[in-house]
Protein 1
Amino acid sequence: VDKPISIGSITANPQANNRRVVLFKGKAIDIRMITGGALGIPTCGQAFTLEDDTGSIDVWYMIKCHHQDHANVVIVGEKDQLLVSATIDSSPATDLQTSIKPDTGFRAMAMKLVRLKP
């Protein structure tokens, strides 16, 4: 995956794109913390809305709490321009929660974030 695709091309039919690995480019807004656990591992992270000219998608960037490898963790700031490598997840919600928004039923699970120069 080397070229970003439009967010609108995924949100039009999230079910058809389930488990697909995508690259998005957009602006992060509405940043919130994630807390919960997956498979018994305490999980922390950030969720945010990524928007481009075609639409917006909920992005979850998960890390294990107290992970040693925090050197590679990108902390997302409001209105950051990002390149997001993610897997589309349109499966039902897990026990993870974000502090604000209700679960839309699908999200992009970020594996890698790159902050772009403004």
Protein 2
Amino acid sequence: YAGAPLEDRNGFRLGTLCLIDRKPRTFSSDDQKTLRDFADLVEREFQYQELGTYYAERTQALNILNDISLDSNGSVSQRIERALAIANQYLKLETAIVSNITGGVYTVLWHHERHPTSLENGITFPLEQTYCSLLAAQGSVLAINHMGRSRFSEHPCYQQFQLESYLAAPVWIDDELFGTVNFSSTIPRRPVFTETEKTFVNLLGRWIADIIQQQKHTEVLDKLVANAPGMLYQYRLWPDGHSTFPYASGGIQAIYQVTAEQFAKDASPVFERIHPDDLAVVADSIQASADRLAPWTQRYRIRWQDGSWHWVEGKARPERLPDGSVLWHGYIVDIDERHKIEEMKSQFISTVSHELRTPLTSIAGSLGLISSSSLGHLPEKSQQMVSIALRNTEQLKHLINDLLDIEKLVSGRITM
């Protein structure tokens, strides 16, 4: 007999490569080295086969995760439930759950069962009665192949549900334990959970955390946008001249009486609602902002719901994109009431200023005649009082002229 031990790539003993014969013989040191060389060849073949299986398993897991991450159809709930169904099939387990852990309460947010039972989304359990209490204490991937033979066989969850196998990963959001993604079955795991399967569940948990976090951020943004006055938007001008609204808040309905989806591919109908006298000014201001990448600010009139013309104001900041198009981020608000008030104020100032200047001119002229002694000599004290009145009259005239100049400046009627 001559034998050489065989080991796998991790050093675990697999067996031997042995030679057996009924005839006695001796083995030289060269014979022993040759046998060892043959044993090394056999070990390498085992290791290649083992690595091939390992990499095939890893590739399958990564392909499944890739398919899950590229699935963007439907709501967050639909995407997660489809992911749980795919993962359940890959792991060959019975139940998949995404849970939320708040305090000592475990809540089923989404689930998939290969054999439906009474489990429902939204159902809650005390955390200590679930296997997730073990994961929460550990804080990392937890795999149990046969619960009945493990040190957790007295756990309340096992006593109640008789779940023999369990594989779970934590779902971390903003460095806090949000919950878990876990898979379980009433049948012991044979063969045991592999490192690839553990990695798969861990990466799936990270993906779930990402889309839950995105959903939370979107909900916060939607609430802020819903309470913002007017419409928030992105306006994109392409190199070929066509334009789109890649994003517009719900306020676009009130401003332009359209939905955001209608102008996501073509923004030209928006310009049809602008007053003909303002259309060229708006178009020129957009082009000037694009050429200089300067902030865009414009007031103009649009046709309102009742058919009347309504004043709005828009402000936005542009940025140049790699393809040569320009993207503005800004807002448009209804300023019709404010515009009317400003016009009333301007008209009031203009009217009052003109009405004040006429009598004030007469008063100033009269005081000037009295002060010049054209109507007779005045006592010294009377002369002082008239001079004071005349100076203040001139100051009032200057203030009124300033008001009229400001009114002309605002309306664009002043020549510098």
Protein 3
Amino acid sequence: MNKPVNLNKLGIWAPKDDASLQHEGRFAVVKEMLQRYRAFLLIVAMPTLLAALYFGLIASDQYESQADFVIRSSQEGRSAPTGLGQMLGLGSALSGVQNEAYGVADYLSSHDAVAALQKRLNLEAIFRRPGTDPISALGRNETTSEELLKYYRKQVSVHYEPTTGITELRVRAFRPEDAHAVASTLMQLGEQRVNDMNRRAYDASVASALRQFTDAQKEVTTTQIKLTSFRQSQGDIDPQESGAAQTKLVTELDGQVAAARAALATMRGTISSSSPQVVSQQQRLASLEAQLAAYRGRLSGNAGATAIRLGEFEKLRIQQKFAAERYQAAAALYEKAREDASRQQLFVARVVEANMPQQALYPKRLQIVATVALALLLVYAIGWLVVAGVREHSA
């Protein structure tokens, strides 16, 4: 009698026990749920899980150092102009300070500031500290200046608030000392930029007045040299006084000649013309007339006459006086330009010094993960509504 074939041993068929049936049922339920919620898992659950894993386990801590400063001028101490005063242009000084503040904020976010930080602190090394995750850190390979500037602007925030005039500086780095060093150096760079602006503005406003002052000073020196040379060549310190003395002497001689002529005429009327008294008086008159002619020739009768020398001297004195007046006016203008430029000088007033952070504030892990989850849920909900609307419309 033949024995029945055991199909279980042959592997063709075997009855399933209850445990196997329950396992297959659970697997089928899970498979059905995965198929049903596949879109939700792919759009919401998986990206949120990846974000949670990255920010919870991989993302490096980042520390933030903050510093605040304002840019002021010495004119800001005066009363602020009213609305009418601003309409009349009295608020130009304040607007100038605002423009400079915007300029400093723009500079601190520029490639010039990045180059200065790279030279002083090695900015690339700060943003590539060992142990930082590759996503947060600066690229490990050599970066171009444009790539470094782009990353720098992600880590450094410079914001100027026009209503308060405060410029807020925030720096994030992977080490507390790095954040503090970058923020402190940026404050120094900002002060240096303000000093450069002051120097350029001072030079621009004072340069013209200084040039006029220098020209007037040279003119005074030149006229003084000419006047001294004239005195040395003529051998006369003050030709004006010398001319006055000679004029007085000519006047006195003229009077003596007139008196001598009158005396001679009187003698001729009383005594003989050949008498010794008349001859002596004639000789005295001739001598006085010769002296008078000589002195008159010195005054105006030859090329080296006193009148010509006095005219040249007066011309030089007028030039000297004009140069002196021009020098005084140029000196006053130069001093006023310096005072005005000094009153318009800007300076950086530090409101909050760069702090040494004690606790990592970034990344905000829970906030980021929650934001990612909510955003993905919103996307999923919009997509679900669109698909449901299409299905309903096609049905």
Protein 4
Amino acid sequence: LDERHSCWAIELPDTSVAGTVLFKPLPNGVGEIEVGWHLHPDCWGHGYATEAARAVIDRGFAAGVPEVYAVVRPGNRASIAVCGRLGMQEIGRFRRWYDVELEIFLLMAPVIVE
């Protein structure tokens, strides 16, 4: 079990749960790591997905993950916008991991010069 990978609840200050954020290997891949989010519709539009995804991406990069992917259903403008706010680059549409055509986004770990 790799401690970098998991699924977490996105808790709000009032202790309710807005949804989940995940950081895990993509299925049928060769070690590619996915960040993903699923929020209740009442919690859309508040920045929770961006904040939660940024936290798990930063955690993954700190643990040595070199790059992170997001897979989004075509037309899901809200999640595509989250990818943009995270600084992810769109790399095209593929059926590689989930056997359905998805928009693929990539974020490389920052290069640290010492």
